[in-house]
Write a structure and sequence with these properties.
302 residues; alpha/beta; Rossmann fold; N-(1-d-carboxylethyl)-l-norvaline Dehydrogenase, domain 2; 47% helix; binds nicotinamide-adenine-dinucleotide
Length: 302
């Protein structure tokens, strides 16, 4: 893997943001053989994050080493491939990419934004042709897909080198050639969440019922057969008849549902505050993470 990365001119990587995603992305890059400098504006998270990444890499032969960066310049200056996983805030990311692009004039600069258009993230960068979206999914070492997104100014060379690097590191890498907010996966996911939340807000059923139906119907099928194949499978004539009947009453709000704002205003932020749509007693969040990882692993084993 390292030889392949080197053939792309990529010998060292920098990862900016050492939270949930950044530390594990660093672990994947080091597992592929790259030495990685991991940097976070909050230095107190770095030691644990570096340990996590190195532990992940230690399971692989010829792994690279992850070390803590002393500052942003340190993480970028000698890196050929830099990826950020900082807070999802356009202003913060724009300032970061402006700075990154001054510390290295040649490195590929990748953003792990979940939904922000890459063209906007790159707006203040010099040489925006070097900026590319790489949307990893959580946990990034387990979920196979990375969406590689072309911003309006991303060069084909940047797309191709990024794609090739991540594919060779074992990721199921897909090209997103048009820079739309949310790319592919999160557009699909949040179209579903909008309707799920609307069903609760409109009193059609309670929150538990939404999840129960979802998990035991489309949830069971989707990992095997995606929506396009399913439409073909059941028949496009049936699909059109269903759409004619149901689309007029689906939620089309272009802003978050007011029920979300009401919950947030009441301090109900979900698992992290103990209450959201559902109740989260101590330990439930950790158990959910464990159960989810075990489920993903068992699905991938097939
Ligand atoms: N959590 C997920 O499931 C998930 C999945 C896919 C993509 N993402 C995206 O990945 C990014 C990071 O998400 P996360 O869940 O790891 O967040 P997180 O809050 O766990 O970690 C973010 C880290 O970035 C650091 N940081 C903030 N601003 C910084 C700056 N200017 N310079 C350096 N470090 C800075 C913070 O100190 C924090 O440690 C976001 O853009 C998010 O949308 C998250």
């Amino acid at each position: 893997m390292l030889a392949h990365a080197q053939s792309l001119g990529i010998n060292r990587a920098g990862v900016i943001g050492a939270g949930l995603m950044g530390r594990r992305i660093a672990g994947v890059l080091a597992s592929g053989g790259l030495d990685v400098v991991l940097y976070d504006a909050n230095s107190s998270v770095l030691a644990e994050a570096v340990d996590t990444a190195n532990l992940m890499a230690s399971a692989h032969q010829d792994a690279g080493v992850v070390r803590a960066g002393s500052d942003l310049r340190d993480a970028v200056a000698n890196s050929d491939y830099v990826t950020e996983a900082v807070v999802e805030d356009l202003t913060v990311k724009q300032a970061l990419f402006e700075e990154l692009s001054t510390y290295s004039t040649t490195a590929i600069l990748a953003s792990n934004t979940s939904v922000l258009p890459i063209t906007q993230v790159a707006a203040r960068a010099t040489n925006p042709e070097r900026v590319v979206g790489t949307h990893w999914w959580n946990p990034p070492d387990l979920i196979p897909i990375v969406e590689v997104i072309r911003g309006e100014q991303t060069s084909t060379e940047t797309m191709d080198r990024t794609f090739s690097l991540l594919e060779n590191f074992g990721k199921l890498t897909v090209r997103v050639e048009k820079d739309v907010a949310g790319f592919v996966g999160n557009r699909l996911q949040h179209a579903l969440w909008r309707e799920a939340i609307a069903l609760v807000a409109d009193g059609v059923c309670d929150a538990e019922t939404v999840d129960l139906v979802c998990r035991n119907t489309i949830g069971l099928r989707l990992a095997q057969m995606g929506p396009i194949e399913t439409a073909d499978y059941v028949g496009l004539d049936l699909t059109r008849a269903i759409h004619d009947a149901v689309l007029p009453s689906l939620n089309t709000d272009d802003a978050a549902n007011p029920i979300l704002t009401a919950l947030i205003d009441a301090g109900s932020l979900g698992a992290k505050s103990g209450q959201g749509f559902l109740t989260w007693p101590a330990g439930r969040r950790e158990q959910a993470a464990t159960d989810l990882a075990a489920h993903v692993k068992s699905q991938l084993a097939h």
